[in-house]
Amino acid sequence: MPSDTAPPLTRSQRRAERLARQKQIEQRYHKNRQRNLLARPGRHSFAMVLDHLKAGYNVAKIFRSAQAFSGAEIHLVDIGVFDPAPAKGAFRKVPARFHDDFGQAHLALREAGYTLYALTADGASTLPQTRLARKSAFVIGNEELGLSFDPADYPDIQTLAIPLYGEMESLNASVAASIVMYEYVRQHAAD
Question: N or C: which end of the chain has fewer CB within 10 A?
């Protein structure tokens, strides 16, 4: 009696499939990155700063939220190739700025007149208590390691916390980014 299931893949076949998927992701990324050169800022004057986020996790999702909330731009600090597919086309629509380290992003944003806020679990202020500047840039740190810099080295950056009421100490990076974008738009809807 013939079996309806295929034999399990060998180790080398699994590796070949993984490499083929990675190549597809890289091609999609480079194609979309070229299209990103034509992206225009949204109607709201906020920027997101993705500080050393894992390329395969939240980056594309944050692009999608930034496009949905009509953000100005996203700064990517030391983030490699990521799959743009979860962004649902937003990587082509929200301007991306690429930096090797946080200092470069900080300088560019300060020169452009942004007020910077870093989201941390122990922020000096909470998001609902803070009147956000019209030109706001929100720094989201690595999912496991947090910010790549010591906030004390950048005294102009305000630290913000999103109040949490359960047992979890933090939110997923893309969820936290979406919450802060929503709050920005809520405060500046009439601008």
Answer: N
Check which CATH number belongs to the domain holding 137 and give it.
3.40.1280.10
Do the Cβ atoms of 62 and 7 come closer than 8 Å?
no
Q: Is residue 29 part of a domain?
A: yes
Residue 40 has pLDDT above 70, yes or no: yes
Closest by CA to 125, choosing from 83, 77, 157, 173, is 157
Residue 177's domain comprises 11-188
Examine the pLDDT at 72 and tell me if it is beyond 70. yes
Per-residue DSSP letters for 138-173?
Answer: EEE-BTTTB-SS-GGG-TTPEEEE----SS-S---H
Asked if the structure places residue 6 within a domain, the reply is: no
Contact 181, 65 (CB under 8 A): yes
State the CB neighbour count (10 A cutoff) for residue 129: 10
CA 176 to chain CA centroid, nearest Å: 10
Sign of CA dihedral 54, 83, 170, 101: positive
The predicted model scores a pTM of 0.89
